[in-house]
Amino acid sequence: MCRWFAYIGEEPILLEDILIKPKHSIIKQIDVHFLPYLHVIYDPHLYRKKFSSGVASDEHGPNHFTNVDGFGLGYYTGVAAEFNNDNINRPCVYKNVRPPLNDLNLISLCAHTSSKCVFAHIRAATRLSPIVETNNHPFVFGRYLFMHNGSVANFLNIKIALVQKLSENAYRNIFGTTDTEHVAALFFTHLGNDWDTELPMENLKNAMIKTLQDILTLIQESAKDMDETLPQSNLNFAVTDSCQLLATRFSSMDEFEPPSLYYSTTAGPTFNRKFPDHPDGKEVGKEATQATHNHGKHVIVASEPSTYKTKDWYLIPSNSFILIGKDLNVVIEKIDL
Amino acid sequence: MCRWFAYIGEEPILLEDILIKPKHSIIKQIDVHFLPYLHVIYDPHLYRKKFSSGVASDEHGPNHFTNVDGFGLGYYTGVAAEFNNDNINRPCVYKNVRPPLNDLNLISLCAHTSSKCVFAHIRAATRLSPIVETNNHPFVFGRYLFMHNGSVANFLNIKIALVQKLSENAYRNIFGTTDTEHVAALFFTHLGNDWDTELPMENLKNAMIKTLQDILTLIQESAKDMDETLPQSNLNFAVTDSCQLLATRFSSMDEFEPPSLYYSTTAGPTFNRKFPDHPDGKEVGKEATQATHNHGKHVIVASEPSTYKTKDWYLIPSNSFILIGKDLNVVIEKIDL
Amino acid sequence: MCRWFAYIGEEPILLEDILIKPKHSIIKQIDVHFLPYLHVIYDPHLYRKKFSSGVASDEHGPNHFTNVDGFGLGYYTGVAAEFNNDNINRPCVYKNVRPPLNDLNLISLCAHTSSKCVFAHIRAATRLSPIVETNNHPFVFGRYLFMHNGSVANFLNIKIALVQKLSENAYRNIFGTTDTEHVAALFFTHLGNDWDTELPMENLKNAMIKTLQDILTLIQESAKDMDETLPQSNLNFAVTDSCQLLATRFSSMDEFEPPSLYYSTTAGPTFNRKFPDHPDGKEVGKEATQATHNHGKHVIVASEPSTYKTKDWYLIPSNSFILIGKDLNVVIEKIDL
Amino acid sequence: MCRWFAYIGEEPILLEDILIKPKHSIIKQIDVHFLPYLHVIYDPHLYRKKFSSGVASDEHGPNHFTNVDGFGLGYYTGVAAEFNNDNINRPCVYKNVRPPLNDLNLISLCAHTSSKCVFAHIRAATRLSPIVETNNHPFVFGRYLFMHNGSVANFLNIKIALVQKLSENAYRNIFGTTDTEHVAALFFTHLGNDWDTELPMENLKNAMIKTLQDILTLIQESAKDMDETLPQSNLNFAVTDSCQLLATRFSSMDEFEPPSLYYSTTAGPTFNRKFPDHPDGKEVGKEATQATHNHGKHVIVASEPSTYKTKDWYLIPSNSFILIGKDLNVVIEKIDL
């Protein structure tokens, strides 16, 4: 299981405040982690759902893979759009296969960079895709970032059929060999050929539904061809164009729980050093220069909560969309395929 | 011979415009380069100066080392100072031992980052210091960046004596093994213990003079102890605190020409995509959105010119300071030890 | 243009002696090189052939790309076969994207390892395949190594059609995104499903002929579909199973000269420190412990000669096979498609 | 706490069999590990010794650092000595800052290389020394390898005084910035100036005693100068010249237990695929081709046992030498300073 973290808001955030400083920040989520206690409250036992291998649970420990297989970061600065005098707000991307805690470039970058939209991802590779930078998430398509926690079952069996569904542009935008990047190419094929202008959320949602349908169909056909039982896929995706964000918490089989995915619309000030409180707890001193109520509207979507305040975090229900529009309002919708 | 490039100005510059785009930008200066033709005009032959090994000249080719031994970049964003609500404007630093042209992180970072003060350096290592990131320039001391083209002769012979001259703070700020980082620590020892508040240029100049004197004395004593002839050192240093910049073009022996070092107070618009003209020549189309005269005051100091307009570049005389104050005025002064 | 070097013989060679020590060894072939003077004698002018971009020639300089895009090394030790008590002699492979001259691991490995069969490759990437280790040559398929100098024209246009020709095993053995690794998978599809037992040279030759035919057909069909003029491909391949070696010097269009490719059956002792003479010239002192005539039979095939003795090197004619059997005899054959 | 593993024997071992294959091999010891159950039997509680931070114990979990800060491997092939026709058997060294489990070069190297003497080390860096290859253990001095688990207390305070004790040769053989490499240089200063010919074990022991005395004295003097209480150092060192091996399990303060260190003279066949049994347990099938009693004499010294057979492993008492001579006999001696 990988893990990812996404921030979008009208309040710029210092990358260090969300990615490095918290005791349970994503770059420290290499093994045992902050207890995903809300996950239990949601209670898979009650719903009698099973966990597929590697999925967070309090019973088996939250993660039995070690996330040391590459870190990736995407964020928007708006600088290129200003210098190019267009409105094409493409992301800056940083990827490395070294453990992120040892990466002095990453640490310096995070200490000196703020953004209103950030994607971060830490990978636990399956043995199918090698550990090289081009396989690290998030992936860039025009102004979009795309990342994933989970895996597409039997990906190599459906890869050729999937590739044949891709538009020329999407196909040529693939630089690595992961299932995720190919799924992203399929999503951007369904989204159309213009990845630089802003599109309505409805378009993103429709493209994602078609993408999920295609993947499930391809897997079914492949299992049928090979006379195998249908395998399970975990498909927690996130995609953004800098001003809106769509994510999914999705398991291809109803009897399995997908990996955890939380959101928060209130944790921002706790992360941000300008405001009171600290992600590791109230007792950690912090000199606030602004009042909490002055913090801008924002949403965080993440595999695991990384502040101590559990009441700030909501578990997204299984097989649901979380849709965050330009107004930064959150809509949770059942995924209906 | 290494090479370095420094920009300071009131006009923010897109890193891509100075470091990546020009045909002769520093990351492309790995072997044969833009002809340092002004260097010839200055005419070492006339002054009968010799070139030490590796120094640029039109006679032997501008550079007989290959600069593939590590790239480093330092730039100021002001973001940390804003979030910390102090005035401590420390630099962001990025270093890598991969060839910079292949470094997708660097290329993305430069495409999405602008700054008013940038240091960049490409290394041709002597065999004494290994090729690891901690040996890449520029080096950070508090709010300062420090870099070097050249080498301190017989550095290992004087290292212990040099280290004993260092303040506790400067000593503990050394993370690699290069001559340059040790010289920097000596400079910051002479500068005093506060590396976070702005100091008058006079302090920087005095610290540099003491540093040069110390190095020359240490080398002389070592040569005497070992009964060797005095070796030659090339000491083209640059130091900045984000709002002023001091650099040296210095050879320890008068009969040798130091490596080339140029400055320009007018090349900025040619680099900057917002303004007319292009570093590779007028014929390269560029859609300017602003008039040249609107470009802010700025100074570039660099081992080699990297725009086609030779009249924009001045060779700094041997054994001189270039001092760029907060007003961005340029003063050239003979170094008088 | 990339470059490659292959050694096969009954005399083990210290890797340092072929890859590191010579002034013109492959790891030093990053830009201007040892004059491929035999190439001129062969005289493209006489035959009025053209050079495609990047091909060695004395007229335009031997190489106008800079080979800093990744080094790869494959060699056979026989150790695994001994410990596993089978006869499956698979290769050890080392790949890195750092400049090889700076790579202390590579330098140490070469100083302490000998082998009877070695493949080495230095890459000048086209912009289509990213610079990651999985894209470095040579590629491993069972007991085989495969490498390439040149490029498959319009590879992205034919990739899907090519992939559909692959056997399941060959397809699953692809870990990167280069044209070469896909061509290799096609070759090993034609070779059959057993890549661990030794096969007759005839099988290798037939598989290579089918591979070349397939590639040319795919390119023709793609050009026709897209209504484009037929592009030129350079296909200098090498493949070995540790005891025999097949290589091609091939241009897809007769009017173009393929990249240079030489062989030698006598240069071994000059490389080997146990024997008299030195790759950089007679004047370089070397204490031989054995007489030249005691050196075992061997063949070297390489993009460029890397000893000073031009009479030891033969340019392989355009569009030819070089076939080196278990008896280490050399056969040059016209490639007849 | 780091961890290290050493093998010396007359039976060559495939690197994969000791470093990669076992479930608890050193490259998998990044966090929670094989229970060091003998450690408990030795019973720190009985002796009422304390554990310093990071030391293995069953009470607090075996290791609360994560060992992802660089892997190093040294082994002897004898190849260079054969080609150079001297008897100078220097080691081959491989170091990387990537997680070793992701390192395809390391995995291939281990699959195809055997040796009679191997040192391997995995690092959990203190924040004082950066994570760069030159700081990875083991360190090479002539024909010797040197590695360390633990740390020298207040190293930066004693570094200059330590450096002044070094011979010119030892000083010039330092390429990184760790405490360990400096201690090694002190050891090789005491050993004398010839690091290429074999020396009696007595010389190694005396050099180590002087080194430990020097370190303790330097730390005492520094603590006194600074009016600080004496800090504790863990000094589990290992050194070899390929044919003999000396290691220490040492804590500078008697009331603290040093990190665990085990040895085995019988575990070799269990690791080695040629012989019956498997490091992960009898139930793991393995086709032996040789009988256990045919395995050559050997000794393993390691921070943690990595086979399931606890009776094969002995905990070395605190503050002791383990001395393994050319006859491969083991002598345990109290360290008497």
Concise description?
4 copies of one chain form a homotetramer. The first copy, chain A, has one domain (3-334): 4-Layer Sandwich (Glutamine Phosphoribosylpyrophosphate, subunit 1, domain 1), CATH 3.60.20.10.
Q: What would you say this structure looks like, in words?
A:
The structure is a homotetramer of 337-residue chains. With 337 residues, chain A is an alpha+beta fold. Chain A has a single domain (3-334), classed as 4-Layer Sandwich (Glutamine Phosphoribosylpyrophosphate, subunit 1, domain 1), CATH 3.60.20. In chain A, 24% of the residues lie in helices and 23% in strands. Chain A contains 9 helices and 15 strands. Chain A has helices spanning 15-19, 37-42, 79-84, 104-111, 155-163, 168-172, 179-191, 201-225, 268-271; strands at residues 3-14, 50-51, 71-75, 92-96, 114-122, 139-141, 144-151, 234-240, 245-249, 256-257, 262-264, 298-302, 314-315, 320-324, 330-334. In chain A, the strands form 3 sheets. A 7-stranded antiparallel sheet of chain A has the order 4-3-5-1-12-11-13. In chain A, helix 5 runs parallel beside helix 7, helix 5 crosses helix 8 and helix 7 crosses helix 8 (201-225). The first copy, chain A, is globular. In chain A, 54% of the residues are buried.
CATH superfamily of chain A: Aminohydrolase, N-terminal nucleophile (Ntn) domain
Q: Which oligomeric form is depicted?
A: homotetramer
Q: Sum up the overall morphology of chain A in one term.
A: globular
Structural class of chain A: alpha+beta
Q: Provide the CATH top-level class of chain A.
A: Alpha Beta
Strand content of chain A: 15-25%
* Total domain units of chain A: 1
Output the number of helix runs of chain A: 9
Record the strand order, biggest sheet of chain A: 4-3-5-1-12-11-13
Reported by name, the CATH topology of chain A is Glutamine Phosphoribosylpyrophosphate, subunit 1, domain 1
User: What number is the mean pLDDT of chain A?
Assistant: 88
The major β-sheet of chain A equals:
7 strands, antiparallel
C-alpha end-to-end distance of chain A: 24 Å
- Low-pLDDT segments, ≥5 res of chain A: 32-48, 53-64
H/E element sequence of chain A: EHHEEHEHEEEHHHHEEEEHEEEE
Give the chain pair forming the largest contact, with residue counts. Answer: A-B, 30 and 30 residues
- Would you identify the CATH architecture of chain A? 4-Layer Sandwich
